[in-house]
Amino acid sequence: MASMNTLVQSSESKETVLQFYGPQFYRYMDMVGRNDFYGWSGDGPVRSLAEKMGLSRDSYVLDIGSGIGAAARYFARTYGCRVTGVDLAPANHEIAQERTKEAGLEHLASFILGDALEISYPDQSFTHVFGSDAWDYFPDKLRIYRVAHRALVPGGILAFVDAAWTTPRRFHFESAIGPVSYATTEEYASMLQAAGFGHIQHLDTTALATQAVLRAIYQHVTKREQIIDAFDERYYLGALEVWAEFLAHMSEGQLQHCGFAAAKKEVT
User: Fold this and answer.
1) 71-121 pLDDT, tens digit each
2) Total structural domains in the chain?
3) What b/e sequence results for 223-241 when a residue is b if at least 16 CB atoms lie within 10 Å of its CB, and e otherwise?
4) pTM
5) What H or E segment, with its residue span, contains residue 70?
6) Residue at 137 is within a domain
7) Which domain, by its residues, includes 224?
8) Is 77 left (phi over 0), alpha (psi -120 to 50) or beta?
9) Residue 157 is assigned to a structural domain of this protein
10) Please, what is the end-to-end C-alpha distance for the chain in angstroms?
């Protein structure tokens, strides 16, 4: 499951995604113990990649597809840096603001409701651009990398965690969460280079994502009666099917999870 993002191409696709990421989804994710991190891979990949991003109190992060702001709050709380999150879903935006205020982090983390690729950011205004299980809704990966490149200071870091496939395919879970578009790890690296990034680092986070999905399935099964009471049996079975499909594809090597960090090349 991925955070709501901003490059959903068709009105039908956009409507599917906006319907999925709403109050019912957040209530369910809290029930299965996702600890604020609603991306399907959980918090492990984000924490691992954060260690490679060189964040400090002087950092200013643009979080594209920020969802309910879990990563933004983690960066602000852990590193004391400023974060601006951008997301298209009104429900995400509202919850991000509420939880950030409850955490006492609104002086560091703020959020914009809108299309991240249509917003005009001042050139070279961020030290980092980040995405967490969110850019799978962006069919044109190169475009988002170029937006990030313009927004970053020279030497700034683009970092993201997301799924990677071995070969293009369609997934059954897309009927619930909306169409997704992944790439191979080699293609991610090639597009980052084409967008003007260097010092590209790849982090294999498949094991962390697998653990997160297994934990979610365990929580889902052990809380069967609570979930059915809160929603219904159809919702219970549908959510279990989504988790199981992620797990099956990863177990078969058809789906991986990865983190990337790359630096905007210095002007010489």
Assistant:
1) 999 999 999 999 999 998 888 999 999 999 999 999 999 999 988 888 888
2) 1
3) beeebeeebeeeebeebbe
4) 0.91
5) helix 70-79
6) yes
7) 11-261
8) alpha
9) yes
10) 41
